[in-house]
TrEMBL record:
It catalyses: (S)-malate + NAD(+) = oxaloacetate + NADH + H(+). This is malate dehydrogenase. It comes from the Eukaryota. Residues 172-336 form the Lactate/malate dehydrogenase C-terminal domain. Its EC number is 1.1.1.37.
């Protein structure tokens, strides 16, 4: 039966070399902003990831407590906490992946771009340290506005002579997570089977879920329902910001999404084939220098940036209307990095 086959399938998985602790390659993951709303649950989830051998937790406030707490969990990853700026180098040295959820989150009424002035500076200083202490690491940028912070990181790395476009990722996984959840509920399909690519960027209308490519496919959804699903995905962050009423933005779902994306990067590094996730990366898919689309991950980070595939007329329109906003957010980031 299917059940028996899937059971023996998972037993087989356990015997694969990377799943047994002795054969796991050494992988150090550093989280910058580890004591924050996202950083804490993300630290927890990365401590649970069997592919992580060293977990480095850095924040300018509160790290010792978070590191001590997480370190008591009886999983193999060895946890170290780093608190003050003079410890940032140690936190980063030897890192294979650096995840950055450092910075301020939105409050009701704010757009992601309103965070620009504070977060641009934080991202710039952290990326300067990455260029110095772990220039070969894969960077997972969570700090908003992602549409601008990723271009800032690229400029910092270019200036330092360490830029590798295959290793810089804007984390847009939460948009995919939301699109999957909302689609599954509306289409009445099992959420664990759902896949929905989300392309463009990571703010408002620049978030473009491609429900025409969603699987399992359904013809139960009409144009109005697709529009509503698109809007809810684009406004998912705001839904949480408003519900938290001044106490920040998505942290738990974001930590989950960040952990999913980092796990995909780790699998890619370890040579697991066919790892595909959507991410905001350097791209030639459109005329813009950065764009989110499906990306195949490999031993060097990006192995292949995949195209958009066939779009519905509604999605084509969405693509046209997002390009100018995304372009200006990218340029804003580049300008900031060049001027500062
Ligand atoms: P938070 O305020 O709870 O935590 C941020 C942490 O960063 C704090 O612990 C703070 O001490 C730390 N920090 C500040 N400056 C730092 C520096 N120079 N070095 C190291 N750590 C530093 O904020 P939260 O809710 O965790 O959000 C963090 C960021 O993630 C925000 O920019 C937010 O907009 C973004 N975000 C991104 C999402 C995405 O989908 N990419 C989704 C949700 C939030």
């Amino acid at each position: 039966s299917t059940l028996r086959r899937s059971r023996s399938g998972s037993r087989h998985l356990l015997r694969r070399p990377f799943a047994s602790s002795s054969a796991v390659p050494e992988r150090k993951v550093a989280i910058l902003g580890a004591a924050g709303g996202i950083g804490q649950p993300l630290s927890l989830l990365m401590k649970l990831n069997p592919l992580v051998t060293h977990l480095s937790l850095y924040d300018i406030a509160g790290t010792p407590g978070v590191a001590a707490d997480v370190s008591h969990i009886n999983t193999p990853a060895e946890v170290k906490g780093f608190a003050a700026e003079e410890q940032l180098g140690q936190a980063l040295e030897g890192a294979d992946i650096v995840i950055i959820p450092a910075g301020v989150p939105r409050k009701p009424g704010m757009t992601r771009d309103d965070l620009f002035n504070i977060n641009a500076r934080i991202v710039k200083s952290l990326c300067t340290a990455i260029a110095k202490y772990c220039p070969n690491a894969i960077v997972n940028m969570i700090s908003n506005p992602v549409n601008s912070t990723v271009p800032i990181a690229s400029e910092v790395f270019k200036k330092a002579g360490t830029y590798d476009e295959k290793k810089l990722f804007g984390v847009t996984t939460l948009d995919v997570v939301r699109a999957k959840t909302f689609y599954a509920a509306k289409a009445k399909v099992p959420v664990s089977e759902v896949n929905v690519p989300v392309v463009g960027g990571h703010a408002g209308i620049t978030i473009l879920p491609l429900f025409s490519q969603a699987t399992p496919a359904t013809n139960a959804l009409g144009d109005e329902e697709i529009k509503a699903l698109t809007k809810r995905t684009q406004d998912g962050g705001t839904e949480v910001v408003e519900a938290k009423a001044g106490k920040g933005s998505a942290t738990l779902s974001m930590a989950y999404a960040g952990a999913v994306f980092a796990d995909a990067c780790l699998k890619g590094l370890n040579g697991v084939p066919d790892i595909v996730e959507c991410s905001f990366v350097q791209s030639t898919v459109t005329e813009l220098p950065f764009f989110a689309s499906k990306v195949r991950l490999g031993k060097n980070g990006v192995e292949e940036v995949l195209g958009l595939g066939p779009l519905s007329d509604y999605e084509k329109q969405g693509l046209e209307s997002l390009l100018p906003e995304l372009k200006s957010s990218i340029e804003k980031g580049i300008k900031f990095a060049q001027a500062n």
